[in-house]
Amino acid sequence: MRTSILGLISGGVLLAGLAAAPAFSHSQGSQPPAPAPSAPSAPAAPSAPSADTRPAPMAAHEAARPKDDFDNEKALADLQKAIAGKEDQPSEQVFKNVKMFTGVPASRLLGAMNGFSRALGVTCRRCHDVSNWASDDKDEKQAARGMMAMTKDINAKYLQTMAGVDKDASVNCSTCHRGHAHPSEGMKPPAGSSSGH
Fold first, then answer.
1. Beta-bridge partners for 90
2. Which of 136, 126, 130 lies closest to 180, judged by CA?
3. Which residues contact 101 (CB under 8 A, 6 or more apart)?
4. 192 confidence band (pLDDT: 50, 70, 90)
5. Alpha carbon of 34 to those of 25, 64, 148: distances in Å?
């Protein structure tokens, strides 16, 4: 069992610079609304590739989907300008409707969002209404919050209490998604290989 868990973990271990894990230890309660900049809460710095850098085959539904032309890099640059001087303030005081990253510095929130974007191979538009960043109308945003809670539970309740697992073992978005919006796509073996089960 230890081998299979460590294999899963090593398949997509930590994104460099993703500061989300420490953020999960903070209260998840509601915070009073805070003024938000007009720029989007877009992702930030690049992350390291996962251990397996082979591209996974694309599913038919993925291939048929039009490319999202949203410019994450520009959104990030705009947001960084908008929060200048507030980077170290708690996210909920800089942005509106922050529920999962309360107490986390605003600049770290941007880094985490960038990590999520890269881990799923999507742009900000996947989870956010880019004309109203605070909106909770998109189901994908709600799913992302649920996934963050699930990841916190796996790391704290299961991996930390499981016999035979290293105490520093953890999972994150890349562990399953591996650059794909649908985790099953990132877990398929490369074309032409056998599963070896």
1. 105
2. 126
3. 20, 23, 26, 91, 92, 108, 109, 112
4. confident
5. 21, 40, 22
pLDDT tens readout for residues 72-85:
999 988 989 999 99
- Where b means 16+ CB within 10 Å and e means fewer, 25-37 reads eeeeeebeeeebb
Q: What is the pLDDT of residue 104?
A: 96
Give the position of tokens 């038919």: 60
As a three-state string, the secondary structure of the chain is: CHHHHHHHHHCCCCCCCCCHHHHCCCCCCCCCCCCCCCCCCCCCCCCCCCCCCCCCCCCHHHHHCCCCCCCHHHHHHHHHHHCCCCCCCEHHHHCCCCCCCCCCEHHHHHHHHHHHHHHHCCCHHHCCCCCCCCCCCCHHHHHHHHHHHHHHHHHHHHHCCCCCCCCCCCCCHHHHHCCCCCHHHHHCCCCCCCCCC
Q: What is the pTM of this model?
A: 0.63
pLDDT surpassing 50 at residue 5 = no
**Spatial CA neighbour of 11 closest among 174, 196, 155:** 174
Beta bridge partners of 105: 90
Query: pLDDT tens across 83-131, in order?
Result: 999 999 999 999 999 999 999 999 999 999 999 999 999 999 999 998 8
Residues near 65 by beta carbon (within 8 Å), at least 6 away in sequence: none
